[in-house]
Amino acid sequence: MNTSLRNVVLISAVPVLLGIVLAAGLTWPRTVNSEPTAKEAAKGPIQKWTKVSVDLPVSQVSFPPGNGSVIANAYCLICHSAGMVLRQPPLTQDEWTVEINKMRNAFGAPLPADQVEALAKYLRSINGQSTKGPSAVDGQAS
Amino acid sequence: MGLFGTSAWAAMAGTLELPFVNGRRDRVTNFPQKGAMLLQRTRPPLLETPFEVFDNGVFTPNDRFYVRWHLANIPTEVDPATFRLNIRGHVGRPIQLTLDELVRDFKPFEIAAVNQCSGNSRGFFSPRVPGGEWANGAMGNALWTGVRLKDVLDRAGVKAGALQVRFNGLDTGVVPQTPDFMKSLDIDHARDGEVMIAYAMNGALLPLLNGFPLRLVVPGWYATYWVKMLNDIEVLDKPDDNFWTTKAYLIPDTPFANIVPGQKDVKMVPINRMLPRSFFTNVQDGAVLRLGQTTIVRGIAFGGDTALAKVLFSADSGRHWKEARLGADHGKYSFRQWEVPLRLSSSGPHKWMIKAVNSAGSAQPDHANWNGAGFMRNVIESVSVQAA
């Protein structure tokens, strides 16, 4: 941390802005700074490579009950946990269809074409809206 | 600090409501090598850095650094004894490097740089767009240590006619049809002496979820290029045609990648350089401060693809601007702290704004930029505060 800022005296050229006065001669608490020092960096971080082995948490969340939840649980969860879907903004059925087809066409989700509509209706029912202005969904992957 | 709301935010155990629809996030501590993070998706992990972390300093601790994976087959075990980095393709001599060779045989290189997800702040887009629904915590700043990509490419000997360099990591999709995640840079960019292969961040080995053992670092560019668990570098003599380069991470070729919702027939190009941004870190929207008490308003800023030139603060909704005092300079790609001492002498409300301007003269816009993929948000940030 820059210690020159620790006890800064800020003489302002703008003394009063709508009831706000810039103060002079301040002292304030600084939070702990985690930044590495140049010395630590120069020492070099690599002393010894060791095997890294971890366990990743497993999601216990399944899609809420409803017409089509069986499809969602069977296909969506192959590649990602349910949270990604439940935390999307509410979408129209057409927008959900765009998203579903992106998963099928771009990412190879093995969802049969004849189940797309049922899944889109279901997703609309759990996290949807009916109408709005121009769709903001461009179908691009990221 | 309680006046500013950061401790109140931090104290909310269990869950946090990000300020947009479906913004409820659990604060979780069950990811390996990670402290408390905001859970967006368990598999593959999307973990956001709780924003109060950014008030602690300009370097984001490794155990709080955000996490973003595309594909769910992520190796949970990496053995440095058998790991190899391949450099191949349009080169004179394909090579395979052990980690020890990489550390021992090349000159170390170090740079402080912000790693920011292309879709950082997507949750604030209006109208909303689907994708990773981040608040502002899909970013972090670290001191990266490793070797220059240029030096490694030179070892293999790039042949005349090389156009691009493609990077691949150990992660793969669950179904075989899923395109493997790869990104490419033009050959001149790859050899610019700044793009590097990092084996450490903030003086320690990378957490597995941030790319152990190696990660590409592309200073000033969005994080989609910073390939994690990097094990394959392929020099190409023709343009990369892989899915993730040609079909994904595309932006409108307009200033700030900005279009209006529904706009069609826009030329799209791969996302690239970052834009300047600045944030309040010790005051939240809706904070109540004590009347007459002097306080320091502070935050962080960065210039994007070039140095930060100045940070401007407004206490009156943008009518008047004043330069904030800047903290230590850790290099042009790093976060930098800003601060302004203030005393509130009327109850308000007051709308405070913060605006970064970089050395190329690019300033954060007054109105939010928008595009259908939710990329590159960098509008001026503001908070409303009261005094009592």
* Count of helix runs of chain B: 5
Give the helix/strand class of chain B.
mainly beta
**Please, how many helices of chain A?**
5
What kind of sheet is the major sheet of chain B? Answer: 5 strands, antiparallel
Quote the average pLDDT of chain B: 95
N- to C-terminal separation of chain A? 36 Å
The CATH topology label of the domain at 69-126 in chain A is Cytochrome Bc1 Complex, Chain D, domain 2
CATH architectural designation of the domain at 69-126 in chain A: Orthogonal Bundle
Question: What is the strand arrangement across the widest sheet of chain B?
Answer: 1-2-3-4-5
Report on the biggest sheet of chain A: 2 strands, antiparallel
Q: How much β-strand is present in the residues of chain A? A: under 5%
CATH architecture of the largest domain in chain B: Alpha-Beta Complex
**Count of the separate structural domains of chain B:** 2
Rg value of chain B: 21 Å
Coarse morphology of chain A: elongated
The counted number of beta strands of chain A is 3
Strand order of the largest sheet of chain A: 1-2
